[in-house]
Amino acid sequence: MIAISAETIEYFPSLRGAGLYHRRVTEGQEKELVDAFIRSNLAPAPNGQVRLVFVEPRLETGFPDLVIVYLDSAAASEWSFRRTGLSKHDICVLHHLATCGSEDQARLSFLFPVGLRSALRKLESMGLVRCARDRWQAQRPRKLMAVRRIVAIEAKVGSWRPGLEQAFLNRWFASESYLLLPGVPKSAELEIELRQTGVGLLTCDTPMRRPVIRAEKAKLPGSYASWLFNEWACHARVASTDLATHAEASHLGLRPTY
Fold first, then answer.
1. Confidence (pLDDT) at 242
2. Given 141, 163, 184, which residue is the final one in a domain?
3. Number of domains in the chain
4. 163 lies in the same domain as 242
5. Domain CATH code at residue 195
6. Most buried in the list 128, 171, 243, 244, measured by CB within 10 Å?
7. DSSP calls for the chain
């Protein structure tokens, strides 16, 4: 497993340049709940995939407690370090082209009035987009994106409502979003709200493969933030493979799983 947190990000210094920041985890019951879940209940990576865990990464919608990313190894091997030069704006343009099919220059200029020319030039130089018959289009998302699954988990001890609110926000980028509680509360209201929001329910005694309530699945990429996790995960996979060739890697918690 490759785990990236405020404590281990120092081993991936170039990820800072790619916009990845973490909040340092506060000691307490919620941290204990998250740590116990990581140790015992994460779903393993399927054959041909790599599992990465991001602990409290910073996003526009907050700091999800856990984001588990499953990468297709073959697709990730085509990822290039040149892509670390992509800005959030570049990735927004890429996301739009990858999800809309194709777009003409006039429409793109309306949607992205600032920095469009630079973004297209950069994306085109990397082979991520191309212009054909005066229309811009991206490569197929499955070829561009090595991520096959993004699971966001929000832990809460005490009142479950703030955790549910953050878990719902996490659906912005995740293919599945879960609320993690110490146990199953006797609350019909919670079950109703989980069904309405599409958020799933996990406890410290239930593995990801058999949740109490299964999350509604969404297609990837859900937003440009889904692409951010793709870039960060591919980057970390390549970097951790290099680190694993050194003896000290065994002390960093960076064990690539293939």
1. 58
2. 141
3. 2
4. yes
5. 3.40.1350
6. 128
7. -EEE-TTTGGG-THHHHTT--BPPPPPSHHHHHHHHHHHHTPPPPPTTEEEEEEESB-BTTB--SEEEEEEEHHHHTT--GGGGG--HHHHHHHHHHHHHS-EEHHHHHHH--SSHHHHHHHHHHTTSEEEETTEEEEPPHHHH--EEEEEEEEE-SS-SHHHHHHHHHGGGT-SEEEEEESS----HHHHHHHHHHT-EEEETTS-TTS-SBPPPP-PSP-SHHHHHHHHHHHHHHHHHHHHTTSGGGGGTTB----
Q: Which domain holds residue 102?
A: 81-141
CA distance 2 to 108: 37
223: amino acid identity, one letter: S
Q: 147: which 2 tokens?
A: 């991520």
81 Cβ partners below 8 Å, 6+ apart?
235, 238
The stretches in the chain having pLDDT less than 70 are 241-258
Same domain as 224, residue 104? no
State whether 64 and 92 are in the same domain. no
**Domain assignment of residue 188, yes or no:** yes
Rounded-to-integer distance, Cα 121 and Cα 127, Å: 10
For residue 207, cis peptide bond before it (omega within 30 degrees of 0): no
